[in-house]
Amino acid sequence: MKKAREPTASAALVLDLFDGLHEFNLVDDQDLQRFGISREQLLHAEKRAPVSLIHQLWQCAMEKNPPANIGLSIGQRLNPLARGLLSHLVSHTENMGDALVLFRDKSGLMSEAEKVAFSVSDGVVRVQYNFINPDHYHKLAIERSFSAALTWFKQLTGKKIQPVECGFRHSPVDYMEQCADVFGDNILFNQSQDYMLFDASLMATPVLSRNVYLKELLLKRAENIEHEMVSVAPLSNLVIQTIEAHLGQGQVNVLWVANQLNMSRQTLHRKLKQEDTHFSQLLTEVRQRLAKQYLAEPGLQIESLSEKLGFEEASAFFKAFKSWFGMTPKAYQKNRSNH
């Protein structure tokens, strides 16, 4: 199988993290040099950098025993030099509803490893973050992401916007006063997902710097960059992304995925064969990885895994899981909690 292209992030996102950690003397220019890049290179708004660079910077910082609230603190900064294409694009949207749609649909411009989802139901807006690689997830990273989002909300609207509820997968923290100042008083921990809930009135809140003309220009540039990103990716990457995005909705089979990628089933099979893989193998790999990820979540109901992983029958899921890991999901979960 061809080696998959490593996911990338905007240079601006990496620069913002580097400058934030640098302010706390947790990283320096020599660290960037060790990773094969310079700060000057990160100043180019449209440059891409490996997502692993973000993980490496966090690792460097954690080796120096950073403040427990470092992620929260970095997210509250606004770095004028670290504005990528996506931040410029959402700055010219009509309102926050428009901004959230673009933030969700174009999140790959910011990072291909961090997916943003949002939905509106019963007068509540739910914004949810997911890390594609579980190894890159930690409380500092998610607190930075949420804090940075709220900082940008204020920049866009001129108003301090807080969620009516905020949920984190990690355990309670010692700096609750600062958390409450950023996220409001209704903060929950040990949740199955990382999310923020807002009153639906947020959607109509105007963006101060809205400009339809600039938005359309930037949107065309964004689409060109997305095309460039896709054109260098192996087809197997696109198949995996399509499976991941729709697996829990059912109907994810080879014909459906081929249609989503605008090709016939035969063409998909032939092209995947050229990459020394096939659809069933990719589907199984995604299911195995997500099964382990879901079972690591506190409070997960094992019965819900079958649907989340796209199995029509629970019995088929349990049989597949045992063939993958040599034990039942419950035994796997128990074994993991004992280590």
Please characterize this protein's 3D structure.
With 339 residues, the protein is an alpha+beta fold. It has 2 domains: 8-216, H-NOX domain (Alpha-Beta Complex); 234-337, Orthogonal Bundle (Arc Repressor Mutant, subunit A). Helices cover 53% and strands 10% of the residues. It is built from 18 helices and 7 strands. It has helices at residues 11-23, 29-34, 39-42, 51-62, 70-75, 85-90, 96-105, 107-110, 139-157, 176-183, 212-231, 235-246, 254-260, 265-274, 279-295, 305-308, 314-325, 329-337; strands at 8-10, 48-50, 114-121, 124-131, 165-167, 187-188, 194-199. The strands form 2 sheets. Strands 3-4-7-5-6 form a 5-stranded mixed β-sheet. A hairpin with a 2-residue loop joins strand 3 (114-121) and strand 4 (124-131). Helix 1 (11-23) packs parallel to helix 4. It starts with 7 loop residues before the first strand and ends with a helix.
